[in-house]
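task queued by scheduler; priority normal; single chain, no ligands, no partner chains; default sampling; output format set to structure tokens
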Amino acid sequence: MRLLLVTAILIYAVESPECLSKRAISTLENKENILELSAISLTEIAIKSTLGKLRISAALARQAVVDLDLRILPYTAEHAFRLFELPLHHGDPFDRQIIAQAFSENIPIVTSDGAFRLYKGLKLIW
């Protein structure tokens, strides 16, 4: 199954694996799953690291992508156009873009963020 990880899941996996739910851990460890990370998440990590809000270097982010066997999901115009249809349940622009991707790609999101539940039809794993 294809699954889209939000930025926080990558950060938890790297810095605080104890913050992951049992279901999230089993999802990450299941080799039958195709784990994807949005290019938007890498952008968010880079911006927040530069601003001093995160302590994840480019090298650490690259290594996490390799260690977790993640595919990077490019952000496309189709994903951006999907934003026009999204209600403003979530205020974080990075998360809204990831939600738009999940809807466009019809794939579940692995997240602990309760605001994602407000989007009717969005499939979540936590």
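post-processing summary
- The first helix runs from residue 7 to 15.
- The chain has a mean pLDDT of 96.
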